[in-house]
Amino acid sequence: MPRPAFKIGPIAHSRTSRVGVIDLGSNSIRLVVYDRLCRAPVPVFNEKVLCGLGRDLARTGRLHPEGVALALTNLERFTRLLEGMHVDRVDVLATAAVRDASDGEAFVAEVERRCRLTVAVISGNEEARLSAMGVLSGSPGADGVMGDLGGGSLEMVGLDQSVITEQVTLPLGPFRLMDVKDGRPKIREVILDELGKQTWLTRYQGRTFYPVGGNWRALAKILMAKRKHPVHIIHQYTVPGPDVAQLAGLLGRQGKNSLERIPGVSKRRLETLPYAAMVLEEVLAILKPKNVVFSAFGLREGHLFDILSPEERMADPLIEACLDIARRLDRFGKVDRLENWIAPLFAGELPVQHRLRRAACLLSDICWMDHPDYRAEHAFLRTLRLPFAGLSHSERTFLAAALYARYGGTIGDRVTSDPCELLSSEERERAALLGAALRLGHTLSGGAVGVLEHTRLQMTPEAVLLWLPEDEACLGGDVVQRRLNSVANLLGRTGRIVIARQQELMIGA
User: Fold this and answer.
1) Cβ–Cβ under 8 Å, residues 180 and 238
2) Which residues contact 34 (CB under 8 A, 6 or more apart)?
3) What's this model's pTM, rounded to 2 decimal places?
4) String of b and e for 394-420 (b: at least 16 CB within 10 Å)?
5) pLDDT value at residue 505
6) Sheet of 163-170: strands edge to edge?
């Protein structure tokens, strides 16, 4: 019985339908299945196979035969998994190796015959644009240059505060450089020649560089280990440009045996990593970026981002992700009301601080199903490691610390000490206050925060006041008073519960 073809092209009929993207790259093929098409899609399945389709391309002009066999076998596996997952839409994107190989069309035809998948062979400029869209989806407001290094090509795109400007694709993938004769001096000459033609790059000197691609992510992992970075997440990992350039220069001079001794380097990357490092070193020499911000978002995420409407693309990916989590986990509804209820404690906050406070409110019931003894630790680790976009590692740590305090944890203890090195003392204090305020709100309402509707907080120079209406005075008590005292102590004040008539309660609210 023939397999049904997947829906390709137009948006799936339901935004709740799962969507899959298969990326046929020069070095690897990867399938990612997302829960739905939205501003903050969550990967529910992710598998990569290093096939090396473009390994012999520069020398033979054809796809690597062993890579083709491996790719076809795994694409059939992917197809069967997609059927089992009931994925409604699958988009297959083929990049440099397939578009440049003389037998690329034959490979596409065989994929479509075996798997009933429609393959889109995208141009170099389109590959660059979609990779840049991926960076913008995960790092809103990106400003500088995006570089996506695949096995066969390097895509570079100028970004002016989220606006795509210049874009180019260059034949500087490791598989092409590996076939350059006369050793590394000649390889460096080839790299410099190609980059030297891109005179527009000098306009972006001193701004941020956003590396994308497996080889450069491998380099980020080496940096994390070397610097003992406490948050082991590639996305938004930020390093001073000179530090990255120094490591790239070192790796570009290493042989396979030397690289094998470096912790965290995949054996499948040993062959290509020195070439990737050489390209990165020369890119950074031209751009002289203040910071390098690694991006885990690239072509696949950019493709999904590109499908969204302009209005959907403008949404905040962090808040959208937190809203989705709140909808899934909220016990009693209306958890978003906490944001306004605790606002009197945070007068004068900056927009970036308000954004994080809103995210923390949405996530504030994230561990209600966990064992009470482990809720604080689970809340910290879960929040720290969630697949969020649109926030730095320090912001990620701040959110995790606030949720740790919300469940009664002490910021800076054994669980939190290493990641919290990324926070200033002021940020730690603010996270502790935010967590204590959330803990008070959940205790007062029992988690059904709609109960807070007729109560309010007020801060005076001497005290933090919790106003309760006469007919709901029963909401107060020893536990609530202790939670209120915790908030007040962090603000250098006393905590008082005030019982008042409804008219008095609403004055100044």
Assistant:
1) no
2) 18, 19, 20, 21, 41, 42, 43, 44, 304
3) 0.90
4) bbbbbbbbbbbbbbebebbeebbeebb
5) 62
6) 163-170, 154-160, 144-149, 208-212, 291-293, 238-240
